Amino acid sequence: MSTTNIDYDLEEPLTSNARPLSNVTLTIRVIKSFPYRNVKNLILQDYNLQTKTGYDLLQDVLQHIKTDGSFRPFRNVNFDTMKIYTHAHGSKTVNLVINFDHDDDDWVLDVQSKDGKKLCEYDIENETEISLYNHDDYVEFKKNPTEKWL
Description:
Protein name: Altered inheritance rate of mitochondria protein 29
Family: Belongs to the UPF0538 family.
Pfam family, one: DUF2340
Organism: Naumovozyma castellii
Number of strands: 4
CATH class: Alpha Beta
Number of helices: 3
């Protein structure tokens, strides 16, 4: 007879489900340059997905970029698009900068409409990663995804 030791509890909830939607942590991947992989993460804590829209999230992040000195090199980019990079506990993309999949579905957030969908309606949960970037730069990089960093 063999016994198996399990070092985790199957009844313990995942961290994506352990916090209420009104108090989550999001990672925003601010992308300055696709070819050079110039990405800086912004961590938003205690964020309310039930009341905030994609527009609200964009405005909050842009305000942080304007006021945080560590984001000074990112201030010359016209950020206009937000897209889910990965859900918590989900598989990650092969590309280290951006997720090329899901361009035509609910992974791209509506950041133009003040009365758009709430973030929780995009299936965003605690520990979701969201990319912020310039759409024209993304389209250009997607045509020829060659990285130039050395």
